[in-house]
Amino acid sequence: MTQKNSGQAVPVRHKRPARRRAYSAFRGTMIVLVVLAFLVPLAWMVMASFKTNVDIHDTSKSFIFTPILDNYSHVLGNDNYLGFVWNSFWVAFCSTGISLLIGVPAAYSMSRFNMQKSALLVLLARIIPGVSLLVPWYYVFANLGWVGGYGVLIVSHMFILIPISVYIMMSFFDSMPIELEEASLVDGLTPIGAFLRILLPLSVPGIATAGILSFIFSWNNFMFALVLSGANTKTLPVAVFDFVSYASIDWGAIMAAACIMTLPIIVIALFAQKYIVSGLTAGATKG
Amino acid sequence: MTTTSLNQLSGKERFSRWVNARRKWIFAAPAMIFTAILIGFPIGWTLYLSVTDAKGSVRSPADFIGFENYLDVLTDVDRFWPAALRTGVFTFGALAVELIAGMCIALLLWRPFKAQKWVRVAILLPFVATPVAIAMMWRLIFDPNIGFANRLLGWVGIPPQPWFSEPATTLPTLMFVDIWEFTPMIAIILLAGLTSLSDEPDEAARIDGANAWQRFWFVTLPLLRPVVLVAVLLRSIDALKTFDLLYVVKGQGGGSFHEAETLNIYVYGLSFKYNDFGTASAVLIIFFLMILFVMWLLTFRRKGAKL
Prior knowledge:
Radius of gyration of chain B: 26 Å
Structural class of chain B: mainly alpha
Strand content of chain B: under 5%
Helix content of chain A: over 70%
Helix content of chain B: over 70%
Number of strands of chain B: 0
Low-confidence stretches of chain B: 303-307
Largest sheet of chain B: none
Low-confidence stretches of chain A: 1-12
Distance between the termini of chain A: 54 Å
Structural class of chain A: mainly alpha
Largest interface: A-B, 96 and 93 residues
Strand content of chain A: under 5%
Order of helices and strands of chain B: HHHHHHHHHHHHHH
Oligomer: heterodimer
Shape of chain A: flat
């Protein structure tokens, strides 16, 4: 009996770990392949930004080359590039700030009082193609003399960012127990006092999520700035795009410009990974 | 009682009571007014322009011409219908691949492993990075002469491909870039969904003797359906409106043969290159109705679907 049992058990015991090891080796390989598929193109961009244009054309120097900084000094020195960095930052900063100021209380109301239809109006802004707004906006803003100023860029970006803030903060407030407020009302706070002193401090993670995502969306936006910015208020994506149209063969400099443009977002992604993921999946995981 | 105490209140206190009683609307008003003006006005304006012959400068007076623009657009087999078809092929072709690949990646990363956090950061980069930079990066990689794509093909013995430089290969290549950019986003949304699932149904199915595929298909996937739907909604809304990638790679008109001209690019050209605001507005209204129709198709059986 012992013999028979062990005779059966041994192959079973051996078989499972072997299969499991094979599976985890397979899984590891697949994960590495996935990561490579998404990182190699980005690495190619970064490497090209450190190559001379001769090296970019040289098939034998795909991965091994002598890195140079000329592309970066060319981009940063020549094209008022730092001014465009500042424009992007200032527009993203202001539009994110105002959007949060407007969006957070709205999200609170819509979540607490279940204002489905009002929420739908704000979220409609997510569906509408941005092009459909550009002609009317351009007309009005041109008549107001705003085109080419920061204000028009900030307002147009707020149009994308308010729905994002409302959407993220609504699902954040939905997950907060209503007892929190009730307790603070019993303790003598007014409803607005409870919102300002109890709920807002507790929603800092949600606000950070909405703020980070908003900043990224504003920083990355291309179409609104393409039409509504002026020579001095161009944001980075537009400035880099213009750069391509008159320097279409200087790939090294173009890649350096692209790298500088993406660097802040990569830094944010490295440090705020948790917030970005929770913002993107807000509402999704609750169904 | 209430009236007497109200009379005793100072102006400031009365104001704060008034505000507190109406906080529901005071909180929501700025966002709603802002959105209503910024959406309502352009839509009304677009509807108006779409029945006029507005051309040239927006300021010049336009005549009412009824539904002529709509008729022109809907019978335009040279530009409008190909652009509409391209929009559909681009959006739903890319979306289908993104969903399947995203699901595979999400399942691959689901159970904890070492470096999971770093893998997640790595696949976050494609879709948070600035789309204009990403588009330029792919222009270099797909350059027929110096690009990495053809070098890679050369190493495995495949002849060089024209990628963006031939009309026939442009749209598939653009779809490839969209897939590269947004498969990670779908994967991360699905991964969050998977992580939030309870283990019990899966365990129960395992005890009942279901194999891995059966457990995925009959247990995990049905539970994940709402998350999949949200991912599809978010992605299809944005893919229908793709602008940065197409414009940076192919410019106005979607290239010399309009090979990358989707409805979004078409409308942009009509408005800002030809200043043909009447026609552009008619296309916009039709485009918008198409988007709403797609949204309705995706959500019509699900109450209160969130965007």
